[in-house]
Amino acid sequence: MKNKRLISAIKLTFIFLILLAIVFTLKLIQQKQNLQSSAAGINDLRSYYPNYQMYQKYYLEGFNYVNGNKQRAVIWFEPQDKWSFRLYNYAPEDPNSRCHYDQLSWWDDGFLRYVKTHNECPGTTSNEIVYDPPIIFLPRYWSEKKPWSLNNQSNATYYENGQQVCTGVNNYTGSVIGWEEIAPGVKAIHWRTTQTTNWKTGNIQGRCYAGYTTNWQEDYWLIPSMPKQGGESANALKRTKGGNLDVQADSWDIWFDYWKPLPK
Question: Phi then psi for 132, rounded to 5 degrees?
Answer without folding.
Answer: -140, 115
